[in-house]
Amino acid sequence: MRKKPTPFIFINSAMSADGKISTRKRKQVRISGALDFERVDILKASSDAIMVGIGTILSDNPSLTVKSDERKKQRIESGIDENPVRIVVDSHARTPLDADILKKGKGVRIIAVSDAAPAERVAKLSKYAKIITAGSGQVDLVKLMGILKEMGIERLMVEGGATLNWALIEAGLVDEIYTFIGNIIIGGTTAPTLADGDGFGERDEVCELRLIDAEMIEEGVLLRWAVK
Ligand code: NAP
Fold first, then answer.
1. pTM beyond cutoff 0.90
2. Could you write out the DSSP letters of every residue in 63-108?
3. Which domains does the chain have, with CATH numbers?
4. pLDDT on residue 116
């Protein structure tokens, strides 16, 4: 296995049959069913930390908590918080103070900002979350991952969205990708996909994957990929 000064990083994403992770309105849509929700909760409970981009906080307002009481109990019994460390990648400290991620559930929150974040927003957020400053302009993801590793985060789950997924893939930071493909078509040129951003321009630049597993779940399919 590749040795790197970052956690083991995996993306988990649910997409439509045409590769969209949301609609053009960028609001959360149900793509998978109860069995897949359970799978995601197990993955979450097995992770040291879970990360999203600020775009996902502003569109979906997720709490990112472990949902099963049994799994929360198991985490507490093994001496850790009931929820993984919850991290928002938010260069300009735009996370709303009443966001569910800051209000719901117990455990540590981290807002990763850049030097460009207004000091007064950072001061307000620091009452609810630990602040990590990495990079100027946008968050420096490589630097951030190094800091998280030093803090003891070994296994990091990324729950989107499209822009953060792309940036992590482009930076070569992602180890594995889980994609649940559901039985709907969303369409739309502006609807987000698993990885948006600029995209690669040439075939020899693309991110190559190795298929680890494929499993039918309800009316969809779960693919697990390793990044080569
Ligand atoms: P996003 O990926 O959640 O967040 C993107 C933002 O992260 C950027 O705009 C940027 O804002 C910030 N960021 C900070 N440092 C960055 C860096 N180095 N590189 C890239 N971004 C950085 O937002 P999104 O692309 O708009 O995705 C949100 C959509 O995805 C929503 O429609 C949501 O419903 C959907 N979603 C779907 C799933 C699924 O599994 N189906 C899961 C999650 C989200 P700043 O520059 O201001 O920091």
1. yes
2. ------HHHHHHHHHTTS-SSPEEEEE-TT----TT-HHHHSSSS-
3. 8-227 (3.40.430.10)
4. 98
Interacting residues of 4 by C-beta distance below 8 A, sequence separation 6+: none
Is 182 a pocket residue for ligand 1 (Cβ < 6 Å)? no
Kindly give the interhelix angle for 69-77 and 34-45, rounded to the nearest 10 degrees.
10
How buried is 60 (Cβ within 10 angstroms: 0-12 exposed, 13-18 middle, 19+ buried)?
middle
Termini Cα distance of the chain: 11
- What is the pLDDT, as a whole number, of residue 97? 98
Distances (CA, A) of 93 to 85, 122, 132, 164, 170: 18, 6, 11, 16, 23
Could you tell which of 63, 89, 141 is best to mutate to test the pocket of ligand 1, judged by most ligand atoms within 8 Å of the CB? 89
Q: Is 63 in the pocket of ligand 1 (CB under 6 A)?
A: no
Q: Which amino acid is at 29?
A: V
Does 61 sit in the ligand 1 pocket, CB within 6 Å?
A: no
How confident is the model at residue 2, as a pLDDT?
A: 44
Residue 77: its pLDDT value, please? 98
Q: Which residues of the chain have pLDDT under 50?
A: 1-2
Residue nearest to atom 30 of ligand 1 (CA): 161
**Ligand 1 contact via 59 beta carbon (within 6 Å):** yes
Name which of 49, 40, 58 is nearest 161 in CA terms.
Answer: 58
Whose CA is closest to atom 32 on ligand 1? 26
DSSP string, 45-71: HT-SEEEEEHHHHHHH--------HHH
